[in-house]
Amino acid sequence: MKTFGNLILATCCLAFVVSGESNAQSSKKKDKSAPITATAPQMQQPTERDRQISEALFLDGMKYYMLEDYQQALQLFQKAYTVTPNNAALNYKIGETYLHLKDSEAAMPFARAAVALEKQNAYYYLLVTQLHTEKKQFNEAAQAFNDLLRNVPNSEEYLFNLADLYLSQSRFEDALKTYERIEKQFGEMEQLLVNRQQIYLRQKNMPKAIQEGEKLLETNPTEIRYFLAQAELLNASKKPDDAIKVLDKALRIEPNNPFAHLMLSDLNRQKGNKSEAEKQVKEAFRSPGLDIDTKVRILVDFIRQLPNPEVEGVALELVDLTIKNHPNEAKAYAVAGDLQTIVGKKAEARDNYLQAVKLDDSHFKIWQQVVLLDAELSEASAMVKHSEQALELFPNQAVFWFYNGTGHLITKDYAKAVRSLEHGKRLSAGEPELLVQFNMQLGDGYNSLKEYEKADQAYEAVLAQDKNNQHVLNNYSYFLSLRNQNMQKALEMSERLVKQHPTNPTYLDTYAWVLYKSGKYTEARKYLEQAVAISDDATIVEHYGDVLFKLGKKEEAVSQWQKAKLKGEASAFIDKKIKDKKLYE
């Protein structure tokens, strides 16, 4: 039959292994009665009956402990303690139970008593170190580790714990000394070299860090990550040539390592070797081992440098390589679209954005880029189609209603245009700048539907916010003149626009046309002559012919009409004007 002391110690250690030295949760409230404090070991030995009573109480306590009912366990342990206060295992278990109840202060005397009673048990010291650490008493925790190492045979494994403790407190010199002790005991170890190097880096001691890196390369001659790390250190120490030599060695071991190629690219760029830098970054992008996110980050760096003819070519090649190696990644096509948009390859950019939304249609900004490029490419039907697709996903985004309405406006489906624009306008109630855009287009749409009152209201709403809005000043004045309504207002608006933009042929033509409709043919001729000197637009040339006809210059008028017809964009009356040599409006 086991002795009482041995039985308690065995059970205690088993429980310790289960708990894993960590703080467990307690669902019970702490007993508010005064805790028992550990006293100095007493010399009086318990009787056999005392030992039996204490052992029974301890075993009952362990049952509750295993069920994580720490409060009940503590009460039983305390009763056992009153009988056998000098039992090391019992003191340890009381301390550990207090730790589970998150009362480090009460636990400490029992943990210390356990160590005092039995100096060669590592677990007792570990409890003391844990309690000191809980209270952020790191010097005391380190001392407890050192006591453990001094008093417990074959405990050198805890040197690693001691080193970690020093490291966590930035006690670098103590950590380094502990690594020396470890090395003497266990020999040279890879992790020690890594840890030492990290300490030297934190101390900004680059020469020492590089020395540790050299040792790592000697002991691990095929480990690529150490070559890359060493190259980084050498580069940081302004030794790019040495870094390049290390990377060349790395590539002899692993020729397609993309990160080595990237570092070589950066090093050659620093040295001004542009062609080699481009070659190396392309090699990296050809590698399937370089993940898509890293490629995107690099491409974003290129995008930040654009527009720049010196990097445009290689950047475009890199996006092509990215798509080739990651054909099912939406972000590959999206970043390609971003880059191509900036360099003016709008059609290619739009196609790549469309491919991106095929793979992942959840990105609002990519859809926005699609319809914006449709507009810039003057592809109204595509704008309608793509905005409708976007609206299925983002029905409350006013911008897509705007592009949808604008697309319908350009394709002359005016009823659909104003429906979309009115809906988007309601969604833009709190955005004054966007409201201006909607009202601009609504003015044009309602005018085309001959709902002139609504058109004028829309235009006036724009001018109330932006009195010099060029689009509205031009279109509003032109449409008023066509309707022969409020001609004085039309003259004022078109004249203001010409004064602000005296060399714009479209605005010159509008002002001239308003003057023409007002019967001021000589003044109209003056502005149209300025316009045709700048532009050969068919409408402007035809208007010039109309004014000349009104001034009695019939042959010159016919000549201008013929020029306008050659442009193919003149009015529906152009053939009749030329044939009959008469003015039709």
TrEMBL record:
<dbReference type="Pfam" id="PF13432">
    <property type="entry name" value="TPR_16"/>
</dbReference>
<keyword id="KW-0802">TPR repeat</keyword>
<dbReference type="Pfam" id="PF12895">
    <property type="entry name" value="ANAPC3"/>
</dbReference>
<feature type="region of interest" description="Disordered">
    <location>
        <begin position="26"/>
        <end position="49"/>
    </location>
</feature>
<feature type="repeat" description="TPR">
    <location>
        <begin position="436"/>
        <end position="469"/>
    </location>
</feature>
<dbReference type="InterPro" id="IPR011990">
    <property type="entry name" value="TPR-like_helical_dom_sf"/>
</dbReference>
<feature type="repeat" description="TPR">
    <location>
        <begin position="224"/>
        <end position="257"/>
    </location>
</feature>
<dbReference type="Pfam" id="PF13181">
    <property type="entry name" value="TPR_8"/>
</dbReference>
<dbReference type="InterPro" id="IPR019734">
    <property type="entry name" value="TPR_rpt"/>
</dbReference>
<keyword id="KW-0732">Signal</keyword>
<protein>
    <submittedName>
        <fullName>Tetratricopeptide repeat protein</fullName>
    </submittedName>
</protein>
<dbReference type="Pfam" id="PF14559">
    <property type="entry name" value="TPR_19"/>
</dbReference>
<dbReference type="InterPro" id="IPR051012">
    <property type="entry name" value="CellSynth/LPSAsmb/PSIAsmb"/>
</dbReference>
<keyword id="KW-0677">Repeat</keyword>
<feature type="signal peptide">
    <location>
        <begin position="1"/>
        <end position="24"/>
    </location>
</feature>
<feature type="repeat" description="TPR">
    <location>
        <begin position="54"/>
        <end position="87"/>
    </location>
</feature>
